[in-house]
Amino acid sequence: MKKVTLTSVFLLLAFISSLFANEVNIFSARHYDSDVQLYEKFTAKTGIKVNVISGKSGALEKRIIEEGADSVADLYITADAGRLGAFDAKGMLQSGLNTKAIKSAVPSNFRTSKWTGIAKRARIVYFAPERVTGAELAGLTYESLADPKWKGRIVIRASNNIYNQSLVASLIKNNSKAAAAEWSKGIVSNMARAPKGNDRAQILAVAAGEADIAVANTYYLALMLSGKKGPEQQAAAKKVKPFFPNQDGRGTHMNISGAGLIKGAPNKANAIKLVEFLLSEEAQNHIVNNTFEYPMIAGVSPHPLVVNMGLDFKQDLKTKVVNYGKLQADALAAMTGAGWK
Amino acid sequence: MTNKKLNFWYLSSFVVSLFVAIPILTVFSSYFSSTSEYMELLKTTFLKDYIINSAIILFGVLFLTFILGVLSAYFVSFYNFWGVNFFKWALILSFAVPAYIYAYSLTAFFENYGSLFSLLTWVFGEQNYNQYIPKFDGMFGAIISMSFSLFGYVYVLTRASFYHQSNNLIEVSKNLGLTASESFFKIILPSARPAIVAGLSLVAMECLSDFGTVSFFSVSTLTTGIYNSWLAFDDLNTANQLSFILLIIILSLFLFENYSRGGAKYHQNTNAGFRKIPRIELKGTKSFYPILFCSFIFLLSFIFPLSQMIYWTAKFPKYFQDTNILELNLNTLLLVFLASSILICLAFLINFGNRISKSKILDNLSMFSISGYAIPGVILAVAFISFFSWLSDILTNNFNLPSIKGIFIGSIFGLIAAYFIRFYSLAFNGIKSSYLKINQSIDDSSYLLGYSKFRTFRKIHFPNLKNSIYLISILIAIEIIKELPITLILRPFNFETFATKAYAYASQDLLEAAALPSLFLIFWSAILIFFTSRHILSEK
Q1: Do A68 and B389 touch (CB under 8 A)?
Q2: 0.80 cut: is pTM over it?
Q3: Helix intervals (H) in B37-175
Q4: Percent of chain B scored above 90 by pLDDT?
Q5: Whole-angstrom distance, CA of residue B440 vs CA of residue B421
Q6: Which end of chain B is more exposed for a tag (fewer CB within 10 A), N or C?
Q7: Cβ contact A137:A127 at 8 Å
Q8: Alpha helices in B285-376, H assignment, sequence order
Q9: How many CB pairs below 8 Å do chains A and B form together?
Q10: pLDDT, tens digit, for every residue of A42-88?
Q11: How many C-alpha atoms does B207 have within 13 Å on its Cβ side?
């Protein structure tokens, strides 16, 4: 009996202390250990404890929605603006990420008042220099990937992948729904194989000679070049070269990892503080050197391997990333309509 | 039936059955929710794909597990060859490797510039081997991964059935002039049919509810379809329709399994006529094929994923420091301890109640216990969340009660409750089957001797069931160590298990970092299997 009493007292104390705790609760679809290190830095600086639960974005969102007003979630961190936009459309986010610090740090096309980018990535083309000439690549755009001259030479992952959905959403925004549907058909007929594997697998397929060009995000190549995936993949990564499309037009398709402020967040002020910290120079340096993404703020240099891929490319700063979420459904429709697996 | 009986046993049985049925009820009750127009398109383009993909995977896995399981069981049951006693239990080690971890290994080994490429480069020097290396990914990879991690069900049950076959049958077949292969196909195989079917239906259920493997290989199946339409597109209607199809398939498998198991009783030998089969001695070249086959399966099902994980852990030692091994061990231990004690206690209670009240209604009610096992873990977890949010909202709105969401969602308690739903069938049916072995007349004698019901339980039932409790707890432990989707969705903040840690790394494309937690997961499961191998291989 004594034990029971003791335990309940202890539990009660734990409960009470949790009510007054100085903390912030993050639901994160990013699983990087380096993110956790970053949160530890934040705690050391501010004394605010960071609680994390990670998982697949869909399941995390569902949990937040179902918990409703009782949810203790403060911030939702995920890769891809499409996801943040779609979550916002469900009415699950609230304003607050429009402080002076955030506004001055993040260009306006990468944020709304409810969510903001914390790091950038570009979705680009990788090619095998042995089989693809500079002349062939000259002036290459996402649009021209549908050109019959690439027949049987392209690898790209499946249509259920959010990065592809966002890319196609940006094509819909800049061209039209019909054009994107046509484009998807062209891509499908240019595929060297049925879509499979992640972005890194697409790059490896080009290195291995299965295809001539791949569409994949920028950080994957840097990850391989860094040797973190072993010497074989490092060597393989050197066999492909990055190419940044649409340089003569709107620029290369950019996407974000971002954070959204959850409606009813019990620790709203702390959440905003954390986002501001994530956008600080210190945190940005930590992020880019671990995940090989591009920094969100000016004045921070990407990881040297990313710098080597080329920094003087034109980013698409015209297409607001908020459209990726809005046009997600149309994008998926365009791809599946074209038979994109 | 007296009122007294109705009070406690009926109530507890009813409550537990209802609790376990929560996910199924939730899935079906949201049937009338609205649907997004854009899912119409998905439905027309993908629904067929989902069903076809699920069917291909199902039949592929059933075919492979049948071949692997039955042949290996046949070899170790009827023949004596070098290493047979080793293979007998080594083959069940495959249970220690969940299909999703098998999938990680398969990809790592065969992908472009993967481990096989490194191996070839190391042995034969630099060259582009990638084009000659077969690629085990997509649908094919999913089938291979699931087959090698699930064939154990067929192997264990078939072997048990072979073991109990009387030598009389074999001798009759010999006297009738049948050759070895003829007696295999005409006598041995047909009489083991119920066991094989039972094994295959377990495989089928696991296969249909798999989420980790198919999502890793991005193959769209009914399960991923339900997940996507429910979670990504808020389309409960489609999710329900898909769930419905899936559940119908799974429930018919259950009925089929029950039916064939029921039939099996009639095949059991009375002790009087039973003669143990002397195993045929195989020496020299004749023993070549069984040895080759058994080693092949053992290597592929266990040694292959194990060595891939060891190789990675050694090659990328950095992740050793990054992983908090002690914490992962303690978390896993906590979940295993809590979940198995609660499962065993309640399964006991209900079984005891069913037994002393001798009620058919209670027996039928307990059939609900299967439902947790029939629903894919990922769907179960989401349904669990939906249900308790709904319940909590009702309590808050109508009775002004404080929210109960925090108790069930994102807490250890909630996690254990969801495990309870998931694995109740394992605990309940395990205890039930050993209860059936205690003759009812023993209870009657005990009452005649003046023992109370509780004393009968303590002095008669419990000692007789001790072994199966031990066995069932360990089986539950293995399941919980390997469990991924429920843990992932329902766990509290800052809480990781080996499975979630491995998953987190794998999903950020760091399979080599996933190796260490995977290795621990395999290690613990294998140890537990080792301790239970005697039971697994003798009874059932």
Answers
A1: yes
A2: yes
A3: 37-78, 84-90, 99-110, 115-124, 138-164, 167-175
A4: 20
A5: 29
A6: N
A7: yes
A8: 288-298, 304-315, 318-322, 325-357, 360-366, 371-374
A9: 132
A10: 999 999 999 998 888 888 888 888 888 888 899 999 988 888 988 89
A11: 33
Tokens 């973190």 — which residue?
A228
Residue A95 near residue A114 (C-beta atoms within 8 A) = yes
Q: Given CB atoms, is B209 within the 8 Å cutoff of chain A?
A: no
Domain count, chain B: 1
* Contact residues for A41 (Cβ-Cβ < 8 A; gap 6+): A282, A283, A286
Residue of A nearest to B489 (CA): A59
What pairing do the DSSP bridges indicate for beta strands A23-28 and A49-54? parallel
* B39 within domain boundaries: no
Residue-range domains of chain A with CATH: 2-120+255-302 (3.40.190.10), 122-253+321-337 (3.40.190.10)
Sign, CA torsion B299/B300/B306/B312: positive
Angle at A66 between CA A61 and CA A70, to 5 degrees: 105
Task: Using an 8 Å CB-CB cutoff, list chain A residues near B42.
Answer: 332, 336
Euclidean distance between CA atoms A139 and A150, whole angstroms: 14
Q: CA nearest B147: which of B105, B203, B221?
A: B203
Is A227's Cβ below 8 Å from some Cβ in B? no
Cβ–Cβ below 8 Å for A201 and B504 = no
From B41, B131, B489, residue closest to A333, measured CB to CB: B41
Domain of B347: which CATH number?
A: 1.10.3720.10
* ipTM reported for the complex, 2 dp: 0.80
- The one-letter amino acid at A285: N
- Asked if B494 lies within 8 A of A52 by C-beta distance, the reply is yes
Q: Which candidate in A40, A48, A67 is best for mutational testing of the B interface (most B CBs within 10 A)?
A: A67
CB A94 within 8 A of CB A262: yes
- The residue range of the domain holding B64 is 3-27+47-538
Interface of A with B in 276-335 (CB under 8 A): 329, 332-333
More confident residue, A302 or B284: A302
Q: Would residue B64 count as lying in a domain?
A: yes
**Quick one: B244 exposed, middle or buried, by C-beta within 10 A (0-12, 13-18, 19+)?**
middle
CB A202 within 8 A of CB A156: yes
Contact between chains at B405 and A230 (C-beta distance less than 8 A): no
* pLDDT less than 70: residues of chain A: 1-20
B13 falls in which pLDDT band (50, 70, 90)? confident
The Cα of A70 is separated from the nearest Cα of chain B by a number of Å equal to 7
DSSP B32: G
**B31-64 burial, b if ≥16 CB within 10 A, otherwise e?**
eeeebbeebeebbeebbebbbebbebbbebbbeb
d(CA A35, CA A29): 11
Both structure tokens of B487 = 């843990």
Tell me, what's the pLDDT at A122? 94
- pLDDT given at position B37: 56
Residue B132: its chain A contacts at CB < 8 A? Answer: none
Contact A160 B228 (CB under 8 A): yes
